[in-house]
Amino acid sequence: MSEVLIRSDDLSVYYPIGGGFLKPKSYVHAVDGINVSIEKGSFFGLVGESGSGKTTLGRALLKAAPISRGEVSYQDGEVSYDLGSLNGQDLKEYRKRAQLIFQDPYAALSPRMTVRDIIAEPLEVMRLTSSRDETDEKVRQIAAKCRLNLEHLRRFPHAFSGGQRQRISIARALVSDPKFIVADESVAALDVSIQADVLNLLKSIQKESGITFMFISHDLSVVAHVCDHVAVMYLGRLIETAPSRQLFSMPKHPYTKALLSAIPSLDPDERGKAEKLEGEIPSPTNPPPGCKFQTRCRFAVDKCRREEPRLEDSGGGHNVACHRWQELLA
Ligand code: ADP
Ligand code: MG
Q: Is the beta carbon of 16 within 6 A of some atom in ligand 1?
């Protein structure tokens, strides 16, 4: 049996907006009632259009977004944390274990620090080493793992390409020896060939070190290649989760099907069959009643507009939230 490293139960993040700080006008339901389990050592993909709440969910699992409702627990052998009540020394310990790789490799790195100092900073802030020699040794090890040369360490970030910068960000995230990493759109800003390079690096780190990854992308075709398990997010909710192979061979939610059919196909017979996704994702401040996807779903019926479908197991760990998934499969 595989172990679950991170589990959330009814996790919600609501941002107050408008009015005053004490009396907000309304709330952005950025993340709403998420139940998710991430297995230890897995490469877990989170996909959905921009604005669906992926970044907020990833950050909430790192306790870097405010948890409004629900729970998140982390369990690794004897070590366990309940994120809702985590603070003080325990929160510091958790920060060593759970790291973020930033979205934009151009914005994330301080231009005035050398690569060595950028990678070493977490060690110094968290006091993980006791001498400069030890820090240098650790930085060299991690840099090599991320395929950076020793001479790179003396330079400043502006001297590097996007792919190299992303590797510097990865090295910085890895240096504190984390167990869980959230990589948020880590390759979105890069060229396709470099994207593949960085993804392969993350994947080999996962295989070698057993680190658990949550990989966030708006692009299902990126996730298809590397993830063991995929969760599809829409307007703050998970609408389908499954082992990757199952999700790609037999998607069950109309939204997932639309995302998949938007991936350019190499098979000429499949080309042009794409069910285009019309319209835009509604505002999370004022989400539609019933199924969150009903306003854009061409299969929506009255029930979909009234009643929100729950995420339920359709067999083999493949979960889907759609009233009509069985009918639509036929
Ligand atoms: P994604 O990463 O999928 O694009 P986000 O998690 O960034 O989605 O955002 C989800 C929703 O929450 C969006 O509507 C966004 O505008 C809103 N949001 C994100 N962060 C904040 C914040 N700090 N304050 C108010 N609204 C926010
Ligand atoms: Mg995002």
A: no
Confirm if 38 and 72 have CB atoms less than 8 A apart: no
Q: How far is the CA of 155 from the centre of ligand 2 (A)?
A: 30
Q: Tell me, what CATH number does 84's domain have?
A: 3.40.50.300
Q: Structurally, how many domains does the chain consist of?
A: 1
Are the CB atoms for 153 and 116 separated by under 8 Å? yes
Q: Which residues contact 208 (CB under 8 A, 6 or more apart)?
A: none
Closest-lying ligand 1 atom to the alpha carbon of residue 52: 3
Distance 50 CA to ligand 1 centre (A): 9
Amino acid at 114: T
Range of the domain at 163: 4-329
- The percent of the chain in helix, strand and coil, each rounded to the nearest 5, is 35, 25, 40
Tell me what pLDDT residue 279 has. Answer: 84
Give tens-digit pLDDT for 159-175: 898 889 989 999 999 99
